[in-house]
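Exam revision sheet. Question 4 asks you to relate a sequence to its structure. Input first:
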Amino acid sequence: MSPRFAAPDEVSLPLHVVEEAALEDWRAARPAAEAAWLTATGFAAGLGEVAILPGAGGAVAGAVAGLGTAGARARGRFHLAGIAARLPEGVWHLETGLSGPALEAEALGLLLAAYRFDRYRAQTPLKARFKAPAGVDAARIEALAAGEVLTRDLINMPAADMGPEALEDALFALAARHGATASAIRGYELIARNFPMIHAVGRAGPQAPRLLELRWGDAGPRLTLVGKGVCFDTGGLDIKPSASMGLMKKDMGGAATVMGLAHAIMALGLPLRLRVLIPAVENSVSSTSFRPQDILTARNGLTVEVNNTDAEGRLVLADALALAAEEECEALISMATLTGAARVAVGPDIAPFYTEDDALAAAISGAATDAADPVWRMPFHAPYETMIEPGIADLDNAPKGGFAGSITAALFLRRFAGAARYAHFDIYGWQPADAPARPKGGVGQGARAILGALPGALGL
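Answer key, structure tokens:
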């Protein structure tokens, strides 16, 4: 269940939020007994500090949280979410000087602090609940939280319970929830309908490969989202070592993220026409696996030499992007857990993205800052095009040498995206250690940045 704010009329306790520099003046304005209590307990308003304020008869009268300094806050995000778990049970409201994007980010963090993945084991719920802070759009924050919860739940599910069939069910359920339409092309029908690379990658899996589609909205600019839905990736015949295979349930993180983004778009009723395309496959090992040095012909007619069966994500995305390019749209965005090279470049916390459209890039980067959703623009570096041209075929899915792996993957995808305003996100989709509002496990990246960029980018 998606977390929601407490009702405005519920009785609540104040959570005062104070920066270090403002503590002295704030404390001087408080009742003498409260000020003395804070001095006695050594509360200094450092980032993450929290003090419970005593009331009459031993009751809790409220709490005060430290916001530290701007420099300390720059080293993290969702700071109040880290405090939420230390508050007593009850409903709380914020009393803070925060406003604008900073307040919205903290409000979202308070909702996401309640996230628990409890499908397989009961989890201790967050005791504290929160009212929407004054000055924020509660419906928007709740839609963002619900989209993120959907993304996390899908990624956290093990592949035994989140294969192509279950991913299809999840997309159809999302469509039904919002009055959208959904369809699927499965198995050998992929060949008949000219999606040869989706079929080649997924044909060895225990469940038939498929291309999933969702459509919503009948007016406004057209936005197409394409998400990589590799529900488990063994690496194929170029099989991964066990240490590299352990997290491969998250290889459908691109699909999960575009579904969470699609939920937010539809829940907020944005005036656009949305299309979601998800190639859903398992990259498995069997007698029917595609092989190294096979040459595949993509939907758009380009030939691809397979030099590593573990570079399969770009193959299935290529067919989906080729389909997207056959229909005009104002923006085309792909999201994928595509390369380890992206993690080497920017680590697990930042989503690198590629686009040739400077205005779109600026809109995404600006929105990312406001949404506490870090991204970094990377280059479609044209001189590297020769690295993905093997000579025997039009394209190479895994250039040798190991250099610029994220860039060459993005250049590969660009060959299929057509003339639309195109952006590609090479995300990680996983939080490697617990952090405020982000427990270890599946996580969305880039979705809030994209959502924030859409009004300006599409003229909504």
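Marking note for examiners. The longest strand covers residues 273-283.
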